[in-house]
UniProtKB/TrEMBL annotation:
Residue ranges occupied by any Penicillin-binding protein transpeptidase domain in the UniProt entry: 245-551
Localization, UniProt: Membrane
Provenance organism: Sphaerimonospora cavernae
PANTHER family, per the entry: PEPTIDOGLYCAN D,D-TRANSPEPTIDASE (PTHR30627), PEPTIDOGLYCAN D,D-TRANSPEPTIDASE FTSI (PTHR30627:SF1)
UniProt similarity note: Belongs to the transpeptidase family.
Stored InterPro entries: Beta-lactam/transpept (IPR050515), Beta-lactam/transpept-like (IPR012338), PBP_dimer (IPR005311), PBP_dimer_sf (IPR036138), PCN-bd_Tpept (IPR001460)
Keywords linked to the UniProt accession: Membrane
Domain of life, source organism: Bacteria
One Pfam short name: Transpeptidase
Leader sequence residues: none
Lineage: Bacteria, Bacillati, Actinomycetota, Actinomycetes, Streptosporangiales
Domain Penicillin-binding protein dimerisation: start-end pairs: 54-201
Name recorded for this polypeptide: Peptidoglycan D,D-transpeptidase FtsI family protein
Amino acid sequence: MLRLSDPSRRLNAGLVAMAFVLSLLAGRLVQLQGLDSKVLQAKAADRREQSEKLPARRGSITDIAGHELAVTVEAREIYLDPKVVEPAKRDLVATTLATELNRSKEEIAAKLAKTTSRYAVVARDVDPLHAKKIMSFGFRGVGAKRTYYREYPGGRLAGGIVGFVGVDGYGLAGMESAYNKVLAGRDGEQSFEMGGEGQRIPMTRSTRQEPVPGRDVRLTIDRDIQWAAQEAIAEQVKASRARSGSVIVIDVPTGRIVAMANAPEVDLTHWQDSPPEDRRNRAVSEVFEPGSTNKVITAAAAIESGTVRSDTVFRVPDSIQCADRRLKDAHPHPPESLTFAGIIAESSNVGTIMAAERISSQRLYDMFRAFGFGARSGVGIPGEEAGLLPGWQGWSGSQRCTIAYGQGISVTALQIASVYQTIANGGVRVTPTIVAGTTDGHGRFVPAPAPKRTRVINERTAREISLMLEAAVGHDGTGTEAAIPGYRVAGKTGTAMRYDQECGGYCGYTATFVGFTPADKPRLMALAVIQDPKKGHYGGTVAAPVFRNVMTFALKTRKIPPTGTKTPDVVLRAHR
């Protein structure tokens, strides 16, 4: 008979195998729910938890009266979560967003095709009402996040001063850069738990740290005078076919910058479209040889030394030998007897050299330094240059002569403006300022610290030089085009050969006029610089009209009354 094997052996083997498998599962279960439960819970929470930055509202930049030059506007960022967009609706989503946001349908479709991505930006700086309309379509996977964008109501107005921000909201130039920490505030953050389909899970843990808004920055400039300065310099740069130009207006007693204009001026709304050289503030970053506007420093050094007075007479030829060079006046003339006041008024290079020969090179150099040459002004504008002032020990024989009338050194427009502010202010230099103050965390205005005040020359010297500068604007001077009816104007022309790196030498000219008014009690000073004009090149004909137009507007805007005194007679020539 056929005997069957004993089934108990197979059953026992099966039971052993099942017990082994169950023990493995039980051990794994104990590990997952017991030993590793907290670790796994944390991992699961991390996967569900999402964090989101809450951008801080950037502070405003305003003019002295509170008119906004840079302001932050609330906006929305439209984004996609391609993973949760329904495949059947991708074409509709792409078409709708392309129409609403003026984007390419292909561009949006390409973002939707990347289903491994959970966040794809479609558009930034979208108006909140427009974003609300887009969200009303109810598309899954389409979201809107609150953001801010920077708006510049004036466009080009004070572009070089205000500066601009990048796409990340960080200041890249001007006051936007210099005061970025003040303006930016501090971003907040919130976290919440999200489900697999991208929806927020209700009743789960969440945290939120509120953003801290940025503070406002108030500038010293006057919006109206700034506009007039920009219009005047842009018009003259175009009329003279110049390369560029700058205008600065300063309140004499306080050193506050009322206007600082450049041409071309960057359009802050479309700053990316401007060439890099037009994005900088030329008034502080472009260096040039000052020419005859520099002669007042030589005059100050000579008068302070006691070797020269305004009525000291010099027999001035039209050329003079300095070491290996023969230096000339701008125009040929027979030898003439000029007072020192006449030398400055008529802007004689030869006469200035003759006066400079009466003082040491070190005294002249020290006076340059005292007026601020060879150092940044302290205004705090990004990109400011210090210029170039060689040490007196290294001056050559001819260089000592040329430096006396403004060739062989390099300065910025602001440095020259500061020199004339000092003279107009009775010899006291006030560090130029561009920021009037900021707001605190409660929105209250906090004035900026008072600027440093330094006596450079004595009051009598400043008054003598001021009278010389009035004569320069009078009938016998070089600055007659700067005269303003009803006001006593003191000022100086400058025409310097312009060093150009592109041509590797002196090519073209720098035309300048700088002055102040009312001369008997100065309130405002202004400087106009025209770089490389092709139609005319003398400061008296190219730059002086800009000064006159800007200053006339500023006087009316500030309601400064006409001068109540007459200009004293100043002897320019002595007959022998």
